[in-house]
Protein: histidine kinase
Organism: Piscinibacter koreensis
Amino acid sequence: MTGDDRPDPDQLLQQVQRDEARERRGRLKIFFGASAGVGKTYAMLAAARAARSQGVTLIVGLVETHGRAETEAMARDLPRLPLKSVTYRDRTLQEFDLDAALAWARAQADPLVLLDELAHHNAPGSRHRKRWQDVEELLASGVDVWTTMNVQHLESLNDIVSGITGIRVWETVPDRVFDEADEVVVVDLPPDELLGRLKAGKVYIPQQAERASANFFRKGNLLVLRELTLRRTADRVDDQMQAWRRRSSVEAVWPNREALLACVGVGASGEKVVRACARLAAQLDVAWHAVHVETPAVQRLPAGRRKQALRVLKLAEELGATAATPSAPEAPAALVRYAREHNLARLVIGRTTRRWPWQRSTSDRIGALAEDLDVVQVAPPAGARDNVPRAEASADIGEFPWRGYATAVLACGATALLATPLLGWLELTNIVMIFLLAVVGVGWVHGRGPAVVAAFVGVGLFDWFFVPPRFSFAVSDVQYLVTFAVMLVVALAISQLTAGLKVQAQAATQREHRMRGLYEMSRDLSAALLPTQVAEIGARFLAAEFKARATLLAADEHDRLVALPGGCAAVDNAVAQWSFDRGEPAGFGTDTLAASACLVLPLKAPMRVRGVLAVEPENRATLGPDQRRLLDTCASLLAISLERIHYIDVAQESTVQIESERLRNSLLSAISHDLRTPLAAMVGLADALTMTAPTLPAPQAEVVRAIRDSAMRMSEMVGNLLDMARLEAGAVPMRREWQPLEEVVGSALAACAPALQARPVRVALADDLPLVQVDAVLLERVLVNLLENAAKYTPSGSPIELTASASSSTVTITIDDHGPGLPQGREEALFDKFERGSKESATPGVGLGLAISRAIVQAHGGTIRGENRSGPAGIEGARFVIELPRGEPPADDGSTTATGAV
């Protein structure tokens, strides 16, 4: 086994770790269909009944029969897990009970849970938002799961399906869950048969079936969905096959799917090969790769010739290819190895002619190395036909590097001259070693071709100068012929091995250098705590790896790009902003704003784009596919580091805010409790003095009333503080009952009548107002706060309007005044604690009324907002709108009336 054939120990270790982790996890089986009605649930239940008959321990966690008689009959005898009741907006929903399933599974040996509709959204209040997250927790606990899903629920195909059918499905499953499933069973049904089931009422009830057949269930839609289902499943199977090939080290190409490989040289035919392969791939609708092999002969070519190959590879990527630039001693062997690693059965290569009788074309050499591969030859461009053999030979079979061959001859001559004085001191076998050493040196410096020439010249010079009779090619002893043969074979073998090892050593050194650079960069980024440190680490890596200048621009809270210190690249702000806004690369080396001196890469983090990285290559050097992938990896690491730092800051701020809020609430609660006792005593004393007011002089009686009013206002403020602290602590019990809204409004008006004495209140309640399920005391407190707020901030004599109406889902209460309105832009901020309309306002209050009102309304499942009423003269007052869920009151069965009659 050669060095190239030996498996990578790190990959083997990772594979073993993945296998061990998979053994601990449960197995996931997905019944996959093109649309509803194909029979996924029925097939899952049928398989479950068969498995149960074979002794498998299973339970139905949740199954949706949708009223289909056949499905219900199939599920009737299977054990079921009780569902969990979840209350949401006055409705009780039945959801899968994850905790009960885990508790059941812990008591079983090999548990299996059936859980229908993988893409389902769980009701608010459940542990996970999506059902597929419930499935992942079951799998992590070692529980096997069977489930169902449709193709339109796959995240990557969701937009495609919505564009075809015109219907957007909001319940989706990440492709990762589908790809990591242990088994996928395609439940298929021809469109005509599915439409027949739909008309027969086996999918939906008649009214729903009629609407479905006119919209989603059109035959064209079903055909497309069926094709997407089969293609997506085929892609998954193909990925599994490729993974198995890699694990089993299978070298033979299996032509299970058409795939093309464009072989890109440095000659004029490279671009034509790429375009021809792209057209062929489009006709066959298959994937394709483009590969340029960096051989020693190619590395000795002028920089312009090598850049041409990189430009052709970039063209291939733009046309949809996967590009690569492996390094190898010979192009044919590297191309065959790449084709087998990626299971590519057909190679597309430019046609070459032999410049020398003993030379073979690249296609012939590929055919000799791999008889199972198809080779398609592309004719050279018409204008470059005469130049093709020379150009292609330089890339594939090696244009004669005359300098290297001359060096080989001179090296052998110098060896002969240096060894001649040693003839009397050394045996001929040792002199042979000196010539072999010269062959090794030539092979290491100039490659295989000059080393072969050195081998032949060395044998000839050894015979001429050292073998008796000297200075002739005659051989006195026939044994020297064996020496010549062995010397030639050894020299040829050494030259071959030396050239190959040199290329492999260079490639390994380059890979090791890149991996070490990435490791050091990742290590430094993991310890970075400031964005400036991230920018400095990124610039240092790019300068060392690419000899390029770089600047990192991070986005602030307003999505404005700010250049971080330490950057030295000349960034075009327009290019950087374009790349940030669209999340795509721009500038040098791309098709967008290519005149820019910098390549701008968006820093895409898992949550959002965090900024851009501007890279200015040295001498505007063309970047190859491997270098571009390395740049993308660098940008990804920088983006993740910036996002990590951002969330560290967010977490620290949130922790400080939480602690500050907790301390403030504790302080308010303690102060409020301590103040209520002396305030109650002050109010009591003021009331006692008021009872004696007729006997007091007028000035003293006025002072007593002022003391009582001030004490009452202070008591009200302290009550608000205490209520706010209790609401945030969740210590206020909710006593929700079905109440007529008219009674709550009447109680609120009576409670705040003293504050509304100088302002008329116009009440307009709709005649069809339903009962609302509320805590009457708390809702009355909300209305009192809003009415008193209107009375505080409106002129005396201006009216206040209170209206209420109902819709199909909500009951809306509106309070309008004719005052100065709310501060522009601060309508939402007024609902925060201790926020007031004007900091310098002389109106008494601490800014808690609206905060208390919002907390109470939200506790009822409703919303409250403030806005300005506009008219011809500008703002004509403020408006507060309360929306409460309507709900369904209990039916009146007449029992009360009957009892009264009795």
User: Anything to note?
Assistant: Confidence is low (pLDDT under 50) at residues 385-400, 893-902. The chain has five domains: 17-248, 260-353+360-378, 402-504, 529-652, 734-885.
